[in-house]
Amino acid sequence: MAKARGAIEVDIEKCKGCELCIGSCPFHVISLEQHVNSKGYHYAYMGNPEACTGCTNCAVVCPDGVITVFRAKSEV
Amino acid sequence: MEVKEIIRQENMVYQRSSLLTSKPFSYCPGCGHGTSNRLVAEVIEELGIQNDTIGVAPVGCSVLIYDFIDIDFSQAPHGRAPAVATGIKRVLPEKVVFTYQGDGDLAAIGTSETIHACNRGENITIIFVNNGIYGMTGGQMAPTTLPGMKTSTSPYGREVATMGTPLKITEMIAHLDGVNFVSRQAVHTPAAVRKAKKAIRAAFECQINKKGLGFVEIVSNCNSGWKMTPVKANQWMEENMFPFYPLGDIKVDGKLVKTL
Ligand SMILES: Cc1ncc(C[n+]2csc(CCOP(=O)(O)OP(=O)(O)O)c2C)c(N)n1
Ligand code: SF4
Ligand code: SF4
Ligand code: SF4
Ligand SMILES: [Mg+2]
């Protein structure tokens, strides 16, 4: 059955680690990286990439507009 | 399926508006001004009016919008954005003119300009970001500050007996005949953001269709002024701000749709 698989790309240098995307993801995909960017912020990344459906919730809520969302049909 | 197979241009379903400049937002982490700026940019882009739109930036954190959306802007002295927007719109009636103001700007020093622009029914759009505080200057009490809320100038909490109750300026202006569309929204969850975008779009369309003034309040956070993490601030906002500032459309097509 075709199932939507998604992925996000975070503009790491512009992420401020506010965590609002984390709480808005229905599938618990996003975590904060231990490392920090050049501004000193922990940045968001897909800790659980398999679970992303590309629903866009995280990108819609990100105050800094640093998330781009992709969605593809997968046969598995 | 590998992540790199998914991250391809043809699979892209959401990206930031191309009207946003490359400058990183200088707002604090998690600040609703960022989300609100993004929505204004998206609506202007989707309506295809970027070459015909003039924004009026106020005084407060909200002023920074002029750095982040690639359209023409003017800046007004504190509170005077609706007066400046009136002038621009009357001289250039074919332009789409909007203000983007905070609560200290719109509901304190600019109360008079707000009420009279609304009462005259200027054909402009007003986006009002209400975070219940003077954010930029260090978290002083605003007319919109909730009862009991601690700020740097109400360190024991806002006392209603001496400082009055919070001003619901959005409900006030909704009663004015010149105002065609009024809505109160928020931008803290994906569902709220999607609704807020619809309201902002409606307020711009109201102007484009020459129906009169469109006004959208966005109840927002000021993590720095409230001294909370972004997540905690949004939770506090839901529990405390929304009961006092309920969300939803207030006036549509010149008719009140809510009992005030
Ligand atoms: C005439 C004048 N008075 C006072 C100030 C100082 N001042 C700058 S921003 C601000 C308050 C802004 O608060 P608000 O509109 O709520 O914006 P926020 O930063 O919360 O988004 C004040 C009082 C000023 N710049 N000009
Ligand atoms: S919402 Fe945006 S800025 Fe905040 S942590 Fe997530 S990606 Fe970073
Ligand atoms: S697109 Fe949806 S599923 Fe994927 S990370 Fe964002 S919120 Fe989670
Ligand atoms: S001071 Fe408050 S309103 Fe200003 S950017 Fe920071 S959080 Fe936003
Ligand atoms: Mg404010």
Please give a structural write-up.
- The complex is a heterodimer of chains A (76) and B (260).
- With 76 residues, chain A is mainly beta.
- Chain A has a single domain (2-75), classed as Alpha-Beta Plaits (2-Layer Sandwich), CATH 3.30.70.20.
- Chain A is built from two helices and four strands; from the N terminus they run E-H-E-E-H-E.
- Chain A has helices spanning 20-24, 57-61; strands at residues 3-10, 30-36, 42-46, 67-74.
- In chain A, the strands form two sheets. Chain A has a two-stranded antiparallel ribbon with strand order 1-4. Chain A has a two-stranded antiparallel ribbon with strand order 2-3.
- The N and C termini of chain A lie close together (7 Å).
- With 260 residues, chain B is an alpha/beta fold.
- Chain B has one domain: 3-Layer(aba) Sandwich (Rossmann fold).
- Chain B is built from eleven helices and nine strands.
- Chain B has an eight-stranded mixed sheet, with helices on both faces.
- In chain B, helix 2 crosses helix 9 (190-208) and helix 5 packs across helix 6.
- Chain B is globular and about 60 Å long.
- The termini of chain B are far apart.
- The model of chain B has no long low-confidence stretch (mean pLDDT 98).
- The interface between A and B is large, with 36 and 36 residues.
- The structure holds thiamine diphosphate (TPP), iron/sulfur cluster (3 copies) and magnesium ion.
- One iron/sulfur cluster binds at residues 6, 8, 25, 27, 29-30, 52-58, 69 of chain A.
